[in-house]
Every structure is written in C-alpha cells, then in structure tokens.
Specification:
2% strand; disordered C terminus; 73% helix; Na+/H+ antiporter like fold; mainly alpha
C-alpha cells in the first residue's frame, strides 16, 4: 500500500508538470497514471521465483487506505469548489446564467437518460445516474481559451462563468436525488431537513460566527485550517445521515466558508493539503477503475453518448441563453463554452461505480466513457471557440 501511494504521489506531479507545459488539463495526466496502475496490476504476475526464492509482486491498488485517500479527495474537491463559487457572479449575468445552467442540465440529462434507457438498455435508475454524470460543466478549459483570445470579460464570458455556478448547484442537487439511498419518503424528509438546516445556518450566520470565534481563540499554527476541515467533514457526515451524497454536504460547507472573512487566509493551506495529497489520489483512483479485466466486455454502444452529450450541452445551454435574451450567435458561443466536463463528472461517475447500481463491468465501462468525454471535450472546446471567434489580437474588440 505504501509503495503504491508513494508512486502515485510522485508520478502525478511529474504528469501535472508535463501536461501544464503542453497547456493541457493536468487532471488528464493524473487519470492516465491511474490507468497505467490498472494495466500494471493486470499484467503483473502475483509472484516470481529466483533460484529457490519466491518474491511477491502484489501491486495493491485496491487497498482500503488508497480508497480512504481517494474519498477524502472527493470531499476536498467539492468543498473547494463550493469555496470558489461566487454567488455574486450572478450580478453580472444572473438571468442568462440561471437559464443557461438550467436548460443545459435538463437537456443533457434528458438526452443521457433517453440514450441509456433505450439504446443501452439500462434500468430507469441506472439511466438516471448515467444522465446525471454528464450534467455538470467545468469551464477551466474554456476560461483559459477565452483569456488567450482576450474575450473573457464579455457578455459571453461572463455568462459562461456565472452559468457554471448555476450548473454546479443544479448538478449537485440532481446528484443528491439520483444517488440517494433509502425510501422516497425517507429521502424527502432527509433532503428537507438538510436544506432547512442550511437555511438556518445562513439566516443566523452561524458558520461565520464559528469561524470568527475560532479565529479569535486559536493562536496555534493552522488552528483555523483544522477547524475548517472539521466543518467540512461534519457537513459531509450530516449529508450522509440525511441519506444524501456526502459531496453535497462538502459543497455547501465550502459555500458557507467561502463567504467568511477568513476565506483568503485559509484557502491557500487548504489547497496545499488537498492538491498535494488527496485530490491527485482521487483522480488516480478514477483511472484505476478502468479495469482491464473487465474491458473485454465493454459495450461500444456507450460511445454513442459522447456526441449526443456534447451536442446536448451546446443545444441546451444555447437555448437557455436565447431564452434569457442573448443574440443567437452569442448564445451558441455560450453553448460551446459550456461543453467541457471534468472534476464533478468524474466524481459522479466514481460514486456511481461504488454505489452498486451498476455491475463492475458496467461501472468500469461508464468510467472509461466519462474519461474519454473529458479528454475529447477538453481538446475540442478551445478549437471550436477559436474557430467561431477567428484570430484575435490582444487589442481587438469582441464582436
């Protein structure tokens, strides 16, 4: 277990560096490390003999400790996503962002659900989970491309940034419903109780007060960081108690902490912990879930979801932007900018894999399909945006 973790942490940072130099999302390199680990475990014999000695070659990538690091990575990832969510972004593009995010989620979910149900033959529950995987947008790739073209601070750019906030919130709520455990009445009670507590926490500023009290009382190094991590884990725990996904609790914990006056002081140390250790292991684990023992049964029909989801994002988000009053050409650009998917899609896919809703072969195939979409959307989106905008100089005025 120790050698696997050591190799994972070292190799992911080497891959991060290589992918950053190539101006590609580092997370893809981290996933590739996990796929390489899965391949090594597949081809490596359990032991080999030399003279009269037998040596174990067990490459234990399924050790519970590895799973713990990966689970912490999921929690930290959604917590930081919540911290970096700025509800104030809606001030610039509130109506268009809300419509863009809502239409994008609904159309993509509907197409994914229909495809999984009627083309693949999944059960309604499986089809709902499959459709949910592809609803959340990650605009990091889009932001980088638009910054390079000097068009980020435009109506299109502002709408994409704000719509990504709405998209995340809609996606988190949707994932809460489809991955929840228990009977429908139990689920409704749990969700209601959870959001009532969130309302009370927001109304009375309880998290802000806790953060302020901890800041005044604690003078030990990183005391406030430890309290923040504790709040994150408590939210995740109470979400599970309410029979909803722990990532929902982590996301809303980050949303509360992110509005506190201490946010700027703790975000750095939190990112250092998360991105140095836990989050990379999560993405390695995502790659590991591509099980070479099961890929012989890969259902190639699943690949048909890729163009469907890509077009669904463009159509849904474009319709939402148009409904909010944006010109047609700008609305289509917004749709294209909303197509990339990254962290949240991979989180939902990995949670779906571990939920028992799918068989191991189905789960591994869905993970592989999601990874392919992440890579393709990361490559195609900047190309399409540059084609739509044409060549731009630093001083050009967006049209």
């Amino acid at each position: 277990m120790l050698i696997e973790l050591a190799l994972a942490l070292i190799l992911v940072k080497i891959m991060d560096e290589l992918f950053m130099r190539a101006k590609q999302p580092p997370v893809i390199g981290e996933i590739l490390v996990g796929i390489a680990f899965s391949f090594v475990a597949f081809v490596l014999p359990s032991e080999f003999s030399f003279v009269d000695y037998n040596f174990s070659l067990n490459f234990d990538i399924y050790h519970p400790a590895f799973d713990f690091f990966a689970d912490m990575g999921i929690i930290f990832l959604l917590f930081l996503s919540g911290m970096e969510t700025r509800l104030s972004d809606f001030k610039k593009s509130g109506r268009s962002a809300l419509f863009t995010g809502a239409f994008g989620v609904l159309v993509t979910f509907g197409l994914g659900f229909g495809f999984a149900m009627y083309a693949v033959g999944f059960t309604p529950t499986q089809a709902m989970v499959f459709g949910t995987i592809f609803t959340a947008t990650s605009v990091g790739v889009t932001v980088r491309a638009m910054m390079d073209m000097n068009i980020l601070n435009t109506d299109v750019g502002n709408t994409i940034l704000a719509a990504a906030v709405a998209d995340d919130i809609f996606g988190i709520i949707l994932v809460t419903v489809v991955l929840s455990q228990g009977e429908i009445i139990e689920l409704l009670v749990g969700i209601s109780a959870f959001f009532i507590v969130l309302y009370l926490l927001a109304k009375y500023g309880i998290i802000e007060r806790i953060m302020n009290a901890a800041d005044r009382f604690l003078h030990v190094p990183y005391g406030l960081v430890s309290v923040t991590v504790g709040i994150m884990l408590l939210f995740a725990f109470f979400a599970q108690m309410a029979h909803i996904a722990m990532i929902t609790g982590a996301f809303f914990a980050g949303l509360f902490v992110g509005q506190s006056t201490q946010e700027r002081r703790i975000i750095g140390p939190l990112k250092a912990i998360a991105y140095a250790i836990f989050i990379p292991i999560f993405f390695v684990k995502v790659g590991i879930l591509v099980d070479f023992n099961l890929l012989g049964n890969f259902n190639v029909i699943l690949l048909g979801a890729l163009p469907l989801v890509f077009l669904g994002k463009i159509i849904g988000c474009s319709l939402g932007a148009r409904a909010a009053g944006m010109p047609r050409s700008s609305a289509v650009k917004v749709g294209v900018g909303m197509t990339p998917e990254m962290e949240v899609a991979l989180v939902i896919a990995s949670l779906a894999y571990g939920s028992g809703i799918f068989s191991p072969a189905e789960g591994s195939a869905i993970i592989a399909t999601t990874i392919i979409y992440v890579i393709l959307s990361s490559i195609l989106t900047p190309i399409m945006l540059k084609k739509m905008y044409g060549v731009r100089t630093q001083n050009s005025v967006p049209g």
